[in-house]
Amino acid sequence: MVSTFDRETLLDLIVNAIPLAMMAFFIAVFALFNPFGSDPASTAIQFAIVVLTFGGLFVLTYYSGKAISNAEEELEAEPAEFAEPEAAAANPDENAEYAELDDGSD
Q1: CA angle in degrees (0–180, nearest 5) for 68-70-71
Q2: Which is nearest to 65 in space by CA: 8, 3, 5?
Q3: Share of the chain above pLDDT 70, in %
Q4: Could you tell me the residue range of the domain that residue 49 belongs to?
């Protein structure tokens, strides 16, 4: 089974785990105990607010994870332009404007 998200992507998305856990806790508490009375309208509104917010954050977390994963894959697939020092030395005209700033007295 191939995982959609790698470890780094999951670490990026862990910030949404706490709000999701809190909302799941409140959904369970509201389902088990009725803290706001037995009015069906207020109960429906309360569940709608928490469940829709939970669902929205869950969907947003999933799609942002996919976007992060796809962006990381694209970056890994592209050749690294700035990673190799030979590439900068091959074209000295690009670094000419910075040469006058460096007097070599480090």
Answers
A1: 65
A2: 5
A3: 69
A4: 7-99
